[in-house]
Q: What sequence folds into this?
């Protein structure tokens, strides 16, 4: 199974201390090169955790060769989303995990199985605390169980 990530879902999962568990399995996890660059823009615990997984090849950072598609998508979407969708099509990913509603809609239109991961808005939020609501089929199909209920803020739908 192949899964492509955009930057925000990687960051959300790293901040939850769930990324290691999420990618611990038989699936292959990818992120476009631009996503890695975007993650490296801010040096924090989440980016260090993600980079450690990339350096150990548990997450594969790979450029897309579908430049024309990525450029066309980039007129409507962010560079990370555009390259993620292009990479997903190129490697025939089983899932693409995005945080942007428009990007998810575009990925679905292009025939990808897209999941949207986003930080839950509203309510009181402490820095680094997130509420997790996971539709059971999203992680069950990946052979994973959701993070502990004490975590706060990422919604998969």
A:
């Amino acid at each position: 199974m192949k899964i492509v990530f955009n930057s925000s879902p990687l960051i959300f999962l790293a901040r939850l201390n769930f990324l290691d568990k999420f990618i611990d399995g038989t699936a292959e996890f990818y992120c476009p090169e631009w996503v890695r660059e975007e993650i490296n823009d801010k040096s924090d615990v989440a980016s260090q955790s993600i980079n450690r997984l990339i350096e150990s090849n548990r997450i594969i950072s790979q450029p897309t060769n579908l430049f024309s598609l990525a450029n066309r998508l980039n007129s409507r979407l962010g560079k990370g989303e555009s390259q993620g969708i292009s990479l997903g099509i190129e490697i025939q990913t089983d899932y693409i995990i995005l945080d942007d509603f428009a990007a998810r809609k575009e990925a679905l239109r292009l025939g990808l199985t897209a999941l949207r991961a986003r930080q839950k808005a509203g309510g009181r939020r402490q820095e680094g605390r997130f509420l997790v609501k996971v539709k059971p089929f999203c992680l069950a199909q990946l052979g994973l169980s959701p993070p502990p209920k004490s975590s706060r803020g990422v919604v998969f739908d």
Summary: Confidence is low (pLDDT under 50) at residues 121-137, 148-155. The first strand starts at residue 2 and ends at 5. The radius of gyration is 15 Å. The helical segments are 7-15, 19-22, 33-40, 45-55, 67-74, 79-91, 101-109, 136-140.
